[in-house]
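Researcher: Before we compare anything, I want clean individual predictions. No alignment, no superposition, just each chain on its own. First chain goes here; please echo the sequence and then give the structure tokens.
Model: Echoing the first chain and its structure:
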Amino acid sequence: MSKTLPTSIEAMLALLNEGDYIADRSLATTVYLALKMGRPLFLEGEAGVGKTEIAKVLARSLDRRLVRLQCYEGLDVSSAVYEWNYSRQMIEIRLAEAAGNIDRDSLAADVLSREFLIERPLLQALRSDDRGAPVLLIDELDRTDEPFEAYLLEILSDYQITVPEIGTIKAETPPIVIITSNRTREIHDALKRRCLYHWVDYPSAERELQIVTAKLPGIDKQLSRQLVAFVQHLREQDLFKLPGVAETLDWADALTQLDRVALDSQTIDDTLGALLKYQDDIARIRGSEAAQLLEQVKREVAAVGE
């Protein structure tokens, strides 16, 4: 049996914390309300701020099956919802032909039964198990085309899918739905109206430090303070792609692997590729700019420690 849903905002905060997800109260409130009201949760924000992780943490913490639909341009029904197992259907037809005395109506009913249906994520999400309804993660919806978005709206209205040859398949219990978007394009208002909405922003320095400590409990305290302060200052720069929390954690892990206990200019220059993902951004920060930011960071961290 799956765990019961949180009965308060404080319980939701605790549940997320148990999964090492350090959420602010406004995000925890929105997640709690989405579960309480049975509404999809639509999370927007820059890449790497922890939108996808929320679905993963909910699935682990609630002991639910996680069904993930990774969106991309050109995503269609056969990849997202269902398709027929054509090779098995052909084998069944060949075997019937070889046996002779083919009843065409009976054969058609056999090969168009649910046994020959390949379930893709959206159809899988309508099926509960002994742990309850799954968590359905529709990741990076902004990468799909608008026709698919319209089709998804229809599914989320009644949590049912119609397969013409079989009929309507409806969820006994609606799944917990988490939709994410990096806002590379605007999602239609009609779909947003079905959901509770939350913008997931970059964390404050205090919360980001908590995240680093939770994910990498063995990291040196001075190093964690310095690298978080450095990342916070980087986000004030005019960069093509600002580092998200995922990049902060990658950098922290890389520095730990190098046995560093404090930042220095050479280490920053050598490891910027773990933090920044575009050469123009790396070239802009590497060298004198990184050294200036480091001096500012050291003064700030020293002042906090006094």
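Researcher: Okay. Second chain, same rules.
Model: Second chain and its structure:
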Amino acid sequence: MNEIGKNIAALRKKKGLTQQELGAKLFVTDKAVSKWERGIGLPDISILEKLAEVLDTDIYELLQIENKKNIKVEKILEEERVKIRKQLNRRNIILAIPIILIILVILFKLLPFGYNIIQVEYGSNDNSINLGVPKFSFLMKHNENSYSFKCLRGSNVLKSELKNYVNKLEHITCNNTAYYYDKESNITIVDYQVENHILYNTITYDVRYGNYCNMLKINEYGKKLGKLLAFFHYENEDEKIHIAFLPGISSDSKVFEGIMQVYVRDEGDYYAIERSTGIYEINGNVLTYYRDDIEVKGDNINIPVVSNFIIENKRLKLEENYLSSYIDEVVLK
């Protein structure tokens, strides 16, 4: 409320008039009177004299100016209106600031900004891996295979950005579960989630080094065989035959490789009747060996492309004995 508005309100109350009664005498609404008194408007010069008359005063007293010669009331009113407009603009700006801030916060929480690929430490050997982290995340925490980040943005948009990131990785499946393998960093994201809090959200990655499905398979095969790179063999001096199967794994831990060697003795010397390489897999208690390359093949032997071994107590028993002309039963231990 400016000084003119305060003065109009004081004179009206002194006369015992309500805003509605004063407005009726001036042929204006009570809302117009309210605006004058609150300092967000001024009466037109055309009704200023009538207002002064109703309030038993004069224009000069009403506007709180000295009665001097050459006083231009209209100019004074215009100057007061300019002041009022500036005050209203300033007030509107102040009122708009929180609204603008709220809109910006809403946009910040709802709009997708994408993610950054950042490098983080992994393990205790100064290894580093890459992770896709939504933009504007902060306060990373690392605990063994778990990484967490805080972010003020909305949970739904964060979930969408994490999904976009993992979908660009290689999808691998084992145990009826899908995982996400990053070839470049050689890590598998086994789980990711966004946890809601009141003021922020927490992004969490559960990470394993290497191809997780292959690691699970390595552990499974190792338990069934005793260990990978175990040497399964049969050697009997009386039957003059030596059989060996070596199950292993490729250097990148992706392919399970096998080597099969069979030697027989003739006149004190051993010579190969089979030397082959290939891959193998284990389903249940059956190890299946697929020969990719047969480097050496004896004349009196028909080497199959595929051989199945029954796993019993860390031993391999050949199902279809293609070496029956040399030995009745092949059991490698």
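Researcher: What stands out in the second chain?
Model: The first strand starts at residue 115 and ends at 122. Additionally, Residues 225-332 form one domain.
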